[in-house]
Recover the amino acids of this structure.
């Protein structure tokens, strides 16, 4: 069959354009194809499915990482602060009655959308049991607020994050966001999975406080009166024997101030709470939330691990990083330690933050490395564990590689990861904690049975 004249002319022109740079020196700067790569294309091998696609993606994005650097520990726990967390996890793994391991992860905007935290939660709950979705805000303070597996709808609330609140009284609840409402205010929090048998509502009791009604799957389960002689955080747990998927709050009378709802399952497992505030800096824990008010929230939840994950928003302010960041981080750590001394604390560094260089390349904002070093120093000095997210994900220039990857793994702002990028960070954090937990169990086994015979390992 003859090729149409127009198509033949097009193919001939393309062939001339591809070969001219190799035949005519004047066109050498216009080369379209490196012919030396053709054999590699013809020798293409189908990529087999990997057992660890996340690790493979890390290798693809960072092929220049040396084995020595790759093996350097990203989770540092010199003082053994995570031992208490590992002990709780061990009890949960044994399925001891009521053994729920509770983790509070405080962070900035990625945490707000449950990025990273959702992946860590899923991995922990798959391995150790699902104790429920945990804490969810009453309504969406930001359009992108989310908790994977939960739908949140609310209206009629005066929403005040601690870092931008009009009412600066420090009374912002566990999640650092408060919701003031009157008649007409309402919320619905719906879980996609079954199995939740109880939920806890958190609010602020206060003089002249009003009331609100609570229902589960459309059935009224109680009316809560928020009036009290003094201003104080309050909580009420409601059990629904048959289970539920939806919690609704409505029929508000007077003025009420709510914080959130914890969705819980009556089984040993892990509760991983994502406490993100958009635009947050370490000052949200160091100053914006009232110390005693927040301490009461922490003492009520009794976390086994508190993750302090800030630094992204501060990392472009060199003077602040060099003069104030360390002081604020220390202040936040001391607050947590004082409120819940039995909890482990993990300082988690920010991810890489990219910026366009004068050359057009995407590099890392200069103060970031100094900020990460400060966090590591504070962790060592105050007996906290430290996770170097920045180095674990690839170090300087990672966001540049993530942005040019196909598909992209970070947004155009070179700050916020796409779900695929967040999944890598979540997997890295989980793997590091799991490695530490295995070493904890190995130490227990050695203590009980002595060292294993040569060539034998224990879990």
């Amino acid at each position: 069959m003859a090729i149409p004249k127009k198509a033949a002319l097009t193919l001939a022109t393309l062939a001339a354009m591809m070969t001219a740079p190799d035949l005519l020196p004047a066109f050498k700067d216009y080369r379209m194809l490196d012919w030396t790569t053709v054999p590699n294309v013809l020798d293409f091998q189908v990529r087999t499915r990997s057992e660890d696609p996340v690790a493979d993606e890390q290798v693809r994005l960072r092929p220049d990482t040396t084995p020595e650097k790759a093996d350097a520990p990203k989770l540092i726990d010199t003082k053994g602060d995570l031992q208490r967390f590992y002990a709780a996890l061990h009890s949960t793994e044994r399925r001891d009655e009521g053994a729920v391991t509770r983790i509070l992860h405080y962070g900035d905007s990625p945490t707000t959308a449950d990025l990273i935290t959702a992946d860590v939660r899923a991995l922990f709950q798959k391995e150790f049991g699902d104790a429920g979705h945990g804490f969810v805000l009453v309504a969406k303070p930001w359009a992108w607020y989310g908790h994977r597996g939960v739908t949140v709808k609310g209206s009629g609330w005066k929403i005040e994050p601690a870092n931008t609140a009009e009412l600066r009284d420090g009374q912002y609840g566990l999640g650092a966001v408060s919701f003031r409402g009157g008649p007409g205010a309402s919320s619905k929090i719906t879980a996609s999975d079954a199995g939740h048998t109880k939920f806890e509502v958190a609010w602020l009791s206060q003089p002249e406080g009003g009331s609100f009604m609570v229902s589960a799957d459309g059935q009224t389960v109680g009316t809560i009166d928020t009036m009290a002689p003094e201003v104080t955080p309050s909580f009420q747990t409601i059990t629904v024997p048959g289970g539920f998927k939806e919690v609704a709050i409505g029929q508000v009378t007077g003025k009420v101030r709510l914080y959130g709802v914890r969705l819980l399952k009556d089984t040993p497992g892990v509760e991983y709470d994502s406490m993100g505030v958009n635009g947050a800096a370490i000052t949200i824990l160091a100053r914006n939330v009232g110390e005693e008010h927040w301490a009461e929230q922490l003492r009520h939840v009794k976390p086994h691990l508190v993750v302090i994950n800030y630094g992204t928003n501060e990392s472009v302010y060199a003077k602040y990083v060099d003069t104030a960041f360390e002081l604020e981080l220390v202040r936040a750590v001391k607050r947590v330690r004082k409120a819940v001394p039995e909890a482990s604390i993990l300082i988690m560094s920010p991810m890489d933050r990219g910026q366009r260089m004068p050359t057009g390349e995407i590099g890392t904002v200069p103060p970031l490395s100094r900020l990460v070093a400060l966090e590591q120093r504070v962790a060592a000095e105050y007996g906290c564990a430290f996770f170097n997210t920045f180095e674990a994900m690839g170090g300087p220039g990672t966001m540049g590689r993530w942005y040019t990857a196909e598909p992209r793994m970070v947004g155009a702002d070179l700050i916020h990861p796409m779900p695929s990028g967040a999944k890598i960070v979540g997997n890295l954090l989980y793997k590091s904690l799991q490695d530490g937990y295995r070493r904890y169990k190995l130490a227990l086994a050695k203590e009980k049975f002595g060292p294993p015979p040569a060539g034998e390992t224990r879990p």
The chain has two domains: 50-131+268-447, 135-266. Residues 50-131+268-447 form a domain with the Rossmann fold fold (CATH 3.40.50.1110). Residues 213 and 223 are 4 Å apart (CA to CA). Confidence is low (pLDDT under 50) at residues 34-48, 63-70.
